[in-house]
Known about the structure:
Elements: E1 4-7, H1 11-24, E2 27-33, H2 40-44, E3 47-52, H3 63-72, E4 77-79, H4 89-97, E5 101-102, H5 107-114, H6 116-125, H7 141-151, E6 155-159, E7 169-171, H8 177-192, E8 197-201, E9 207-215, E10 221-233, E11 236-242, H9 249-265, E12 270-278, E13 284-290, H10 297-304, H11 308-316, E14 331-338, E15 340-341, E16 347-348, E17 351-352, E18 355-357, E19 364-368, E20 375-376, E21 383-391, H12 394-407, E22 409-411, H13 417-425, H14 427-430
Parallel strand pairs: 1-2, 1-4, 2-3, 4-5
Antiparallel strand pairs: 6-7, 6-8, 9-10, 9-12, 10-11, 11-14, 12-13, 14-21, 15-16, 17-20, 18-22, 19-21
Helix pairs in contact: 4-5, 12-13
Amino acid sequence: MFKKILIANRGEIALRVIRTCREMGIKTVAVYSTADKESLHVRFADEAVCIGPPASRDSYLNIPNLIAAAEITNADAIHPGYGFLSENAEFSRICRENGIKFIGASPEMINGMGDKASAKATMKKAGVPTIPGSEGLLSSMQEGIKVAAKMKYPVILKATAGGGGRGMRIIRAEDEFEKAWNDARTEAKAAFGNDGVYLEKFVEEPRHIEIQIVGDQFGTVCHLSERDCSIQRRHQKLVEEAPSPFMTPELREKMGKAAVAGAAAISYEGVGTIEFLVDKNRDFYFMEMNTRIQVEHPVTEEVINYDLIKEQIKVAAGIAISGKNYTPTMHAMECRINAEDPQRDFRPSPGKITVLHIPGGHGVRVDTHVYAGYTIPSNYDSMIAKLITVAQTREECVVKMKRALSEFVVEGVKTTIPFHLKLMDNEDFKAGNFTTKFLESFDFSTL
């Protein structure tokens, strides 16, 4: 087992990793930018190293500084959390070359799954259902038009190095193709430095359902059931839950088997997620694989009583997993509490938190790094907390979430709490009747 782990991240995920490490008897090293000097992950780690100024490229994305911090503190492993360098193959490779264990996927796995076109080909070969589309990247707009004509519209262009909805364009007729082609490639080049795109059939009225998987160094892979992430805005998730209200035992078995087969096909090591689009007929299609821990991992932890961070660390240390697949025994839901103004198109709202009251009670969990007097920097993601509730049924879980949200007081900045409160009263949401397009018709004016 590792003696000391450096957490190459910030905020609530850094604090989350520190807590598990402490329970496992592992020393921790926090890294921080000058903007995060007063953050809780700095206070609660055994050691802390400043790695640069506020800009991410100069601190949390600065690989030489992170490696230097690990070396001067004698850390034998690095946990990247999510975001930042968690799916950066170069960082994983440099850790390996410097004798530091990267608690995540290998460079080969990250590259293989990070390129969406090759990931799709890999999954298709493993027998995982994939959305009909182009064979790899499109070489020209003319090729794309020919492929679209065979599949029939609507279709969607996707950036191969994409994420967060960037480099994606829906095309409903051939006369829209040229503009979409140019816009998608330009956006992809600016965001990812790669303008490669591929084409897929556009799945209408989809659910976004992902399967949590774990693989060890001995070839064993298991799944820990599903999460429904369909409540999202511009491809950014706002609410996640497990199990999915759309799920049936038969569909869970099929999707679980497909996810395990896909992960086993690349001899996957670590904790990861295979994401699917599921249409109204419950046909499912591979979308992408995330080779890291995800923001929404607590909902899985709560429904099967399983510490995913601990499992990540154990797998990285060479400990075998049981290979058991899990089925939820409870219902859990997570609301992302962001410092954003939902009435102003979710504009970020950095600033000083003047008053803070965290909700509590049975079945309520809050993962956060903020406190009264904490100043939210403008340099990073606007998520300040994750509110998780767990209950015997989905109906009870929604009621508990509404109660917990009503107790959650954050003053000094705008937050997404009013949006979540209204969502919990929405009849379609309460009935589990929603798709990824749900928020497009949501009334934000009455928040």
